[in-house]
Every structure is written in C-alpha cells, then in structure tokens.
Description:
With 493 residues, this protein is α/β, with parallel strands linked by helices. It folds into 3 domains: 2-81, Enzyme I, Chain A, domain 2; 95-191, 3-Layer(bba) Sandwich (Glucose Oxidase, domain 1); 198-492, TIM Barrel, CATH 3.20.20. 47% of the residues lie in helices and 12% in strands. It has 22 helices and 13 strands. It has helices at residues 2-6, 10-20, 22-35, 39-55, 60-80, 104-108, 128-135, 147-150, 172-195, 217-221, 237-241, 249-260, 298-303, 305-318, 334-353, 371-375, 377-381, 391-399, 417-432, 450-456, 468-476, 480-489, and strands at 95-99, 115-120, 140-141, 157-160, 165-168, 209-214, 231-235, 267-270, 324-328, 364-368, 386-389, 436-439, 460-463. The strands form 3 sheets. The chain has an 8-stranded parallel β-barrel with strand order 6-7-8-9-10-11-12-13, surrounded by 5 helices. Strands 1-2-3 form a 3-stranded parallel sheet. Strand 4 and strand 5 (165-168) form a beta hairpin. Helix 20 packs across helix 22. Phosphoenolpyruvate (PEP) binds at residues 131, 233, 235, 273, 369, 390-393, 440-441.
Amino acid sequence: QLELLAEDNDIFGVHLEIVKDTVLTESVHNRILEQGMNVQQALNETAREWISMFKSMEDEYMRDRAADIKDICGRLMCSLKRINYNPFEGICEPVIIVAEDLTPSDTANLNLKYVLGFITQEGGITSHVSIIAKNIGLPSLVGAAGILESVVPEDLIVMDAKEGRIFIHPERSVIMKYTEKKRKLDRIKRELADKSMLPAVTSDGHKVSVYANIGSAEEAEALATFHVKGVGLLRSEFLYMENTHFPTEEEQFEAYKAVAYQLEEEITIRTLDIGGDKTLPYFEFEHEENPYLGWRAIRISLEKKDMFKTQLRALLRASIFGPIRIMFPMIIAIEELREAKEIVEECKNELRVGNIPFNEEIQVGMMVETPASVICANEFAKEADFFSIGTNDLTQYILAVDRGNKKVSSYYNSFHPAVIESIRRVIEAGHANEIKVGMCGEFASDEWAVKLLLGMGLDEFSMSVASIPFIKERIRNCSYQDAKMYADTYKKE
Length: 493
Ligand code: PEP
Ligand code: MG
C-alpha cells in the first residue's frame, strides 16, 4: 500500500521508511518473545510508547511526527486484522471521486477538506452512501451508468447533483455558468441559515418539529449553528462501522452522552441497524441472496442479546444527560417490540441493582418501515411511545423495489399511492392512540412532499442538516388549513 501511495506523495515514502526500520520491528518482536504478548497487543504497546515519545519531544517538527506513527501503526493493525484501511487517504487536492460503488464506511472516511463530491456507477438515491453524503452536505450522484468508462484521473468535471448532470471536459461557458450557479446557491444557503432560528410554524400557526438525522456525536456539534433543537434519527450503526471492534459499553456511553449534552429537545437514538447494505469490518456476515430481506436490524439485536444489552445499558446511562429516546428498527411483529422492551427493562433492573442512574421515564419507540408494521400500526401504537416512519425502507418493501439497485430506480417512488396511504394510516393510528408520529426517511426532506405530510398531520420531520433550512422555509410558507384540504385530495376511497 505504502509503495503505491509513495509514488504520488512523499509523506508515504517517509512512512515506508519507518515501516522498514528494524527498530520498529524489533520493538514488536521483543514484546512477543519476552513478554508473551500477541502480535496485535505488541503493536499497540509499541505504538503507544513511540507516540508518547514523539509527543514529548521539544522540536515541533518531531512532535508532529506522532501523527505519522499513529497512522502507520493504524495501517499495520488493519493489515493484521485483515480489514481495509481508508482507501482515500492519499487525497490531498480538491477532487470529485468517481467509483463503481462506495460503501457507507468508505463515505465515512472521506476527507471533506478535499472531496468536493462523488459519482458512483451503482447505487440508488436512498442507498446509505447517498444518505451519508447528504448528511455531511456532500454533493453526490449515484447510478451514473458508464461513468467509469468515460473519465480518467485528472479529467476536469462539473457535477450538478441537483439536476443529475455531469459535464466531462466542460467548455468555458459551462464552467462560467456553474461557477455563477454555485455562487448563487451558496448565497441562498447563507440567507436561509440566517433565518434558521425561526421556528417551523405554518402561516396559520400550526407548529411541527424539524429535527436532524445524524450519524455521530461530531455531527451533533454542528446542529446548534443551524438552530436545530432535536434529533429524529441517530443512526447508531455508524459508531459500530467506524470502529475496529464492537464498541464497548463505555465507548458507547461516552458517544451518546456527547450528543445528549448538546440538545434540548428529543434525541432519538436508533439501536443498531446493521445488515442490508451496512456491514461491519470486524464481523463476518454470511452471504445472503436478499440481504434487505435478511438478517438485519432488530433481528440481529434480539439474537445477539449481549451485544444489544451493551448498547441499551449505554443508552440508559446516557439518558440522564439529555432527552434521549430509544428507537428500534425494522419491527414486523408485536412480539419483537415486546421482547426488545423487556430487554430494556432487564437492563434497567441491572442498573438499579448497581445504583447506576438513568432516566426512568425514557421513551421507547419504533421505526415504521415495513408493510407489516403499517398494517398493524394500531396494535403497535398501543405499546410504543412514538413512531418514526422510515420511508426509505418502507418504499422499497411496499413497492418491491431494491432501494440500492439503479436498474429499478425509476420504480422507486415514495409518492406512489400505496406509500402515501401507508403514511396516512400510520399517522392516524398514532394519533388515535395519542402518540407522536415523525418521519426520518428521505421523503421528509422532499420539498414537494412537505404540504402533503403537513396536511396528513405529521408531527415531526427529520432530515439531514443541509435540508433543514429549505424545509422549514417551505413549512412557514404553507397554511395548515390548505395543507389539510390538499392532503384530502390524495385520500384513497
Ligand atoms: C428508512 O428506512 O427510512 C430509514 C430512515 O432508515 P435507513 O435509511 O437507515 O434504513
Ligand atoms: Mg430503514
């Protein structure tokens, strides 16, 4: 790896020299031979010793080398564990990434200082890479057939993620047009950001919540700048995906606590939703013909109870630091909800015995993202504290259209009457049982769906931070009375 990277960047040439240095190798060998450590432990100890040695040096240049040692040892550790090291680390100038496909963890590794956007040949708009890209405000175009044959490295590209257009070797006039377009868009964003402290209230006084979808505590930090008060979906799986091991209770507790501190309204943390297109580098999933219909989300948590309890204990402990609520993904049967809630109770009891504080009133709700949960919504609403509609999965399951498959992307349509009718039923079932209904699927940030969702009575819209100012502005420009009448025109007999 380093030999390849060193061809373009001298830093990696230095890394290569360090890796070849016998002092490093001997230090690891000695720990194995003399102290009986295994190789990973020996490497860890060596790294720790070297990093602290460099950090304590007088010379600033030498002190900065600690980061290099950390990087080198991280790379070695990944090789030992046979997991991928960040493939994008060599990037040190502004680029658009063109790839066959990216995994969600690839996206998590992108250096936003240099990556201006990405284009993939595979994937659909609600595949997780697109969602992550949106969350971090990165323009993306997925399902761009033939793009890999059309470009070579160093080509100049203009990408228009909104209109779905790509210009390769653009003419001067195109460059000028898009430079101007970008300038205008940046101005609108700044203006809306200025207005973002205004609440999401319709012109006739109906108030709804507009919350953020996030993947980490770091993303939560940005929310205050946009005057976002709550989180409608924290995809906790990113904490697992960015790690080299299942995060411990302590690690998770710290991460959830860091989010809890920062917000004054609901912080909805979804328990691990792995499987489908989301894998873990340190856990082997058996091959499945249909991963989206397979072993994923709550199914894994209920089967791997110890892992589930580790997460729940961390969530409960963090709940005294802020208004955390727990949400289960992919529920299809009332028995699953009951079992998951029983395990929450089991964890609560363990914490009580250990005199460890938690919020006794913590809310426990569920995603409604399967046809089964829509049809049985009334039953679920009696036992869940809240609903959040996951239109990304709900649309794929109702329409039998794989959300990540570009071949069928034209069939993927959340405006399909069957999806709209499902959303209506869920909201009605929730309200009939006096629970709030939110939406955290991408449909909640569709500018053309706002009026309809408002009119159907949705209580909470949750989306990537970048969309919040636009959607709030739309809501402020709507009248609730109009929206209700408009939603009625969509009613199925
Ligand atoms: C959804 O399915 O709509 C959702 C929000 O969850 P995810 O996209 O993570 O599957
Ligand atoms: Mg989902």
